[in-house]
Design goal:
The chain folds into 2 domains: 330 residues, no CATH class; 176 residues, Glucose Oxidase, domain 1 (3-Layer(bba) Sandwich), CATH 3.50.30. Helix content is 38%, strand content 13%. It contains 22 helices and 16 strands. The strands form 4 sheets. The protein has an 8-stranded mixed β-sheet with strand order 9-10-14-13-12-11-15-16. It has a 4-stranded parallel β-sheet with strand order 2-1-3-4. β7 and β8 form a beta hairpin. The chain is globular, with a radius of gyration of 24 Å. One of its GO terms (molecular function) is phosphogluconate dehydratase activity.
Length: 605
């Protein structure tokens, strides 16, 4: 089916806007593809270093340009439950490569931090910048120029966007992303949230909280709520970087290993040495990016991708804007209810039909472009499947049923949970911001209340503990943008604001910081740009100023006389405490050179 008229129009607008950047990018990709890799033309010293640890047979093969060599970029570490399974993947990939007549080498490792571990800690101020550091680290690995294709082992928040930026920077290489899958279901996410709120109110202690958290995050695999990590997996599949049906298969299962083997072999099959050359930079185009945004809206995905998708697209010469994302949200219906946008987790989503059912529904009405290239071939229709094992342990695919396996989790396109994706841009005299309302009750989509200003999330927490916030108000938490302190996630605000909202008060959040994919029931205008550190209007707000957050009209206004507000001098705050400790001094160049949030908060702008 042809794309929906609005989808087509927005895509065409992105194509036109991007044309000079995209043409220059594709020229670079094609020139790089024509130049190599040519291992036989490397100096003998270069080549000897590159294959020093290989077997004699592998050295003979790599001495020429006939046998494909697969570079593995891995984000394995033991600190991320989602990434711990990757410890065993390189041997599996090497063996699969040999079976396919190729060779695989670990080209390099990249850093991968867990936002859950660093939440509310100084290390969180490195989190967003880790994305661009990951892209650079992956670039170093691939710069050996020994490879015909690459596979990327990464799942979580900043890791996948960073790896995508690297893959597109090396866009002359085919690139396949290999997931490790979600952990099995533990304590229900709504119960975990309930315990967190009880702890915030002082009704349970640390022991009870730790027990609940440990039952939620209990083993290898991705956290099971639908935050940025699982939004990443959805994106990689709907954009064509994953093999069909691969995203949400649990780790440590025969199917998971079979999918990993298949992905490695497929990466070798699509090199320039074969007949299906699929360089990542040519494969990903404006249609692929729009498909990713549509998938984000249809699943109620992470607000972090208003940063990451913009930065990822720019790596391919594609200029995606918040306006594009917001307008796509207006026409894309919400088809999934996964926590925090529902009670189910990603295992329930997968069991109900998962990505195959979702893509099939979106294709029905032209909400996604089918005429795209993927690592699997041509057309998104090939992704309307469920992956299984045959009697010999090989991956086979069956068409996803036309009916949802659970109508509380996955809805057909004819009867969506809501008519729009719930991720909107807000504009007004405070600048631009984004808001996710898919989990916010309709009666809370408009909040007008006096401001209470804080310069960090801890100040709000302390005021809550002192009982000073039992009233209607909009919390303004500023100096949390990328230039100020790296734009950390502010999830410590969620429990107290949730408690106050449950007590019947009208509350909302306005911040130049982030709230990530786990932001839920409290209306939150986030990623405000210009940020306070740049002297943005948010730095002029005073306690008591009336603010109107209107997620229906898409506006964010401080209701102060325009002349008076314009005459105010932006507050300046001493940010020296953000500059040292826990590695923050190493990222000072990032804070100095980072772009604005609406440009992806990237140092590559």
């Amino acid at each position: 089916m042809a794309a929906h008229s609005s989808i087509e129009a927005i895509t065409a607008r992105i194509v036109e806007r991007s044309k000079p950047h995209r043409e220059a990018y594709l020229d670079r990709v094609r020139r790089a593809a024509s130049q190599g890799p040519h291992r036989s033309t490397l100096s003998c010293g270069n080549l000897a270093h590159g294959f020093a640890v290989c077997s004699p047979a592998e050295k003979d093969a790599l001495a020429g340009d006939v046998v494909p060599n697969l570079g593995i970029i891995t984000a394995y570490n033991d600190m991320l439950s989602a990434h711990q399974p990757y410890e065993t993947f390189p041997p599996i990939i090497r063996e699969a490569a040999r079976e396919a007549g190729g060779i695989a080498q670990v080209a390099g490792g990249v850093p991968a931090m867990c936002d859950g571990v660093t939440q509310g800690q100084p290390g969180m101020e490195l989190s967003l910048f880790s994305r661009d550091a990951i892209a650079m680290a992956a670039g170093i690995g691939l710069s050996h120029n020994m490879f015909d294709a690459a596979v990327f082992l990464g799942i979580c928040d900043k890791i996948v966007p960073g790896l995508v930026i690297a893959a597109l920077s090396f866009g002359h290489l085919p690139s396949v992303f290999i997931p490790a899958g979600p952990m099995t279901t533990g304590l229900p996410n709504d119960e975990k949230s309930r315990i967190r709120q009880l702890y915030a109110e002082g009704k349970v202690g640390r022991a009870e909280l730790l027990e609940a958290e440990s039952k939620s995050y209990h083993g290898p695999g991705t956290c099971t709520f639908y935050g940025t990590a699982n939004s990443n997996q959805m994106l990689m599949e709907i954009m064509g970087f994953h093999m069909p049906g691969a995203s949400f298969v649990n780790p440590g299962t025969p199917l998971r290993e079979a999918l990993t083997r298949e992905a490695a072999k497929r990466a070798l099959a699509i090199t320039a040495l074969g007949n299906e050359f699929t360089p990542a930079g040519e494969m990903i185009d404006e249609r692929s990016v729009v498909n990713g945004v549509v998938g984000l809206h249809a699943t109620g995905g992470s607000t972090n991708h208003t940063l990451h998708l913009v930065a990822m697209a720019r790596a391919a010469g594609i200029l995606l804007t918040w306006q594009d994302i917001s307008e796509l949200s207006d026409v894309v219906p919400l088809l999934a209810r996964v926590y925090p946008n529902g009670l189910a987790d990603v295992n329930h989503f997968h069991a109900a039909g998962g990505m195959g059912f979702l893509i099939k529904q979106l294709l029905k009405t032209g909400m996604v472009h089918d005429d795209v290239r993927t690592v699997f071939g041509h057309g998104l229709e090939a992704y309307t499947v469920e992956a299984k094992l045959d009697a010999n342990g090989a991956v086979v695919r069956e068409s996803t049923p036309n009916e949802s396996g659970d109508l509380k989790v996955l809805a057909p396109i004819e009867t969506p949970f809501q008519s729009n994706g719930g991720l909107k841009m807000l504009k007004g005299n405070l600048g631009k911001a984004v808001i996710k309302i898919s989990a916010v009750k309709p009666e809370r989509h408009i909040v007008e209340a006096p401001a209470i200003v804080f310069h960090d999330q801890h100040g709000l927490q302390e005021a809550f503990k002192r009982g000073e916030l039992n009233k209607d108000f909009i919390a303004v938490v500023r100096f949390q943008g990328p230039k100020a302190n790296g734009m950390p996630e502010l999830h410590r605000l969620t429990p107290p604001l949730g408690v106050l909202q449950d007590r019947g008060f009208k509350v909302a959040l306005v911040t130049d910081g982030r709230m990530s994919g786990a932001s839920g029931k409290v209306p939150a205008a986030i990623h405000i740009t210009p940020e306070a550190c740049d002297g943005g209007p948010i730095a002029k707000i005073k306690d008591g100023d009336m603010i109107r957050l209107d997620a229906v009209a898409g506006t964010l206004e401080v209701l102060v006389d325009a002349t008076e507000f314009s005459a105010r001098t932006p507050v300046v705050v001493d940010l020296s405490d953000n500059e040292f400790g826990m590695g923050r001094e190493l990222f000072a160049p990032f804070r100095r050179h980072v772009g604005t949030a609406d440009m992806g908060a990237s140092v590559f702008v």
